Amino acid sequence: MNKRLINIVLLGAPGCGKGTQAAFIKEKYDLEHVSTGALYREEMASGSAIGIEAKRHIDNGHLCPDEMTLDILSHHIQSHDEVKGFILDGVPRTIQQANMMEGKGYDHIIPVDLVINLEIPEEIITERLEKRAKELNRTDDTPEVIRQRIIHYNNLTKPLVAYYEERNILKNVNGAQTLENVFKDILAEKEAEIASLKIKIDSEDKDRQIAITEVNLSKDKI
Ligand code: AP5
Ligand code: MG
Q1: CA of 129 to the centre of ligand 1 (A)
Q2: Nearest ligand atom owner, CA of 23
Q3: Is the shortest distance between the CB of 179 and ligand 1 below 6 Å?
């Protein structure tokens, strides 16, 4: 990832809008959007061994194993070496995954520069996902599985808020607003982060400096 500009994690409960907002960020900044949920759904559709294993967990509303998740993520990242950065949608989802991404007990470091935590009340989650269930054909959007996904989010994923707060890279955004207002708030956090990254790495890494300048220029055209 030599030309990396910025890796952004979108953190939040099921249905908080990670996928929706990732698409907006991708469009504006030309970063690669990677959703581990979507990667698993591709594997499931292809009937691969990973897909068969993932389906057992996903259809019951459980998280997939950390090692398997990091493997599909790093494989995707390594095959997109030319991009300026990644929007990591729904990963990490456990403290163990976050540790692995920092290289603790895992071979590939996946650096995280900014974490956007989309906050949303539980009743809105259920409302949105039940509505989506009628539009899309996701096998995990049934009321019972949604309940299970929320339980795992509270127990296993929510602790990442404190984890990234400690590292000083977490920004909370109210995910219960209109799509446009959520995006506006994300942009405000991201602009501030780009500015501070620019200062931080000014003398360290020429490649990243060039990539940042490119993104700062390209954002003006949209
Ligand atoms: P994943 O696909 O990531 O599902 P999720 O986290 O449960 O989240 P969703 O994709 O359901 O919601 P979202 O936050 O993307 O919201 P969206 O934008 O779609 O993961 C699926 C499964 O894969 C997991 O349960 C797990 O088993 C496995 N997995 C994935 N990653 C893993 C990992 N790292 N480790 C282990 N296992 C992993 O929005 C939802 C709906 O609301 C849409 O219909 C949208 O149109 C609507 N909407 C969005 N924003 C708004 C708004 N502001 N106002 C009104 N409606 C809105
Ligand atoms: Mg999603």
Answers
A1: 9
A2: 1
A3: yes
Q: Hey, what are 69's tokens?
A: 């998740």
- CB of 93 closer than 6 A to ligand 1? yes
Tens digits of residue pLDDT in 6-24: 899 999 999 999 999 999 9
**pTM score, two decimals?**
0.90
- Whether the CA torsion 179, 185, 191, 194 is positive or negative: it is negative
Strand partners, 9: 88, 115
In angstroms, rounded to a whole number, what is the distance separating the alpha carbons of residues 125 and 53? Answer: 26
* Cα(94) to centroid(ligand 2), Å: 16
CA distance 73 to 51: 14
Q: Are 146 and 61 in contact (CB under 8 A)?
A: yes
Helix axes 18-29, 179-201, angle to 10 degrees: 50
Residue 133 has pLDDT above 60, yes or no: yes
Asked if residues 87 and 22 have their Cβ atoms less than 8 Å apart, the reply is yes
